[in-house]
Amino acid sequence: MQQKSSVQSTHNQNRLDLTLATTDVEMLDIQSRIGSLVKAKSQLLKGLAFLENSNAKLHAKIFKITSYTVNDTESQDQHVNNHISQSEIKPQEEKVPCAKDSTTAKISNTNNENQEQVQEQSSECDFAILCDSNRKNINTDQLYRKGNNKVIPCGTAAKAIDILTSPRFTAKHGIITNTGANDLESLSPKEVIESQICLVNIGSTNFPSKKISCQVSHQDGTTWINLS
Q1: Which residue in 52, 163, 220, 228 has a CA-CA distance of 20 to 30 Å to 37?
Q2: What does the H/E/C string look like for 94-135?
Q3: What is the pLDDT of residues 69-88, one digit of tens each?
Q4: Same structural domain for residues 131 and 38?
Q5: Quick check: 145 and 182 in contact, CB under 8 A?
Q6: How far apart are the C-alpha atoms of 204 and 135, rounded to whole Å?
Q7: How high is the pLDDT of residue 227?
Q8: Is residue 159 part of a domain?
């Protein structure tokens, strides 16, 4: 009986030892898991701090870019407004000079017309020279020193045709014209040539047996058309 009780007691002791050993193993496992969780929490906190820092830097950059864009836009708007204001003011500032130039041009045109009328009224000459602005380069004494040569201002071929159609002068030897360069601004080359041919025909009709010479030349001396 005592032997049986002793065996039972030993068996119970072994079961208790096994339970305690199992409990110790489980406790160690739990402690290990807690350590891993603490480490993971620490890493998460570090990652969160890094993200918060990056987010703050990103907001700072966005604010800087936004501020620069707003300032640049305001500067451009101010520049455009200043340009518009200057454009609106500029015509008013130039109004008086334009009016003055227009008046001066009218006076100049009137003087030129009067000068043409006076020079056309002389009755007789040896050579009549109808010429545009190139007339300032003409020295009549070198053309026919002993003769009476007349230079008549004539800016276009149409004006020359009017003068030769109803001439107020007579020419002993011939008619020389140098007009048409100004016509190129409003007429085609074909129309300029046709007007020069018309000029020769009218001159030959109203001044028979006289030498008729028509020329279109540039101020630099380049001759474009030469009809005789």
Answers
A1: 52
A2: HHHHHHHHHHHHHHHHHHHHHHHHHHHCCCEEEEEEEECHHH
A3: 656 666 666 665 665 555 55
A4: no
A5: no
A6: 23
A7: 66
A8: yes
Token pair of 130, please? 């109808």
Q: What angle do CA 45, 34, 25 make, to 5 degrees?
A: 165
Whether 94 is covered by a domain: the verdict is no
Task: Provide the residue range defining the domain that includes 186.
Answer: 125-227
In the numeric block, which tokens belong to residue 151?
Answer: 């230079």
151 belongs to a structural domain: yes
Same domain, 222 and 146: yes
102 occurs within a structural domain: no
Count up the domains in the chain and report the number.
2
Q: List, for residues 5-42, the tens digit of each pLDDT value.
A: 777 788 788 888 888 888 988 888 898 889 888 888 88
**What's the angle, vertex CA 203, arms to CA 205 and CA 140, rounded to 5?**
145
Q: Are residues 129 and 221 in the same domain?
A: yes
148, 168, 145, 161: which is closest to 212 by C-alpha? 161
What is the Rg, in whole angstroms, of the alpha carbon atoms belonging to the chain?
55
| 218 and 136 in a common domain | yes
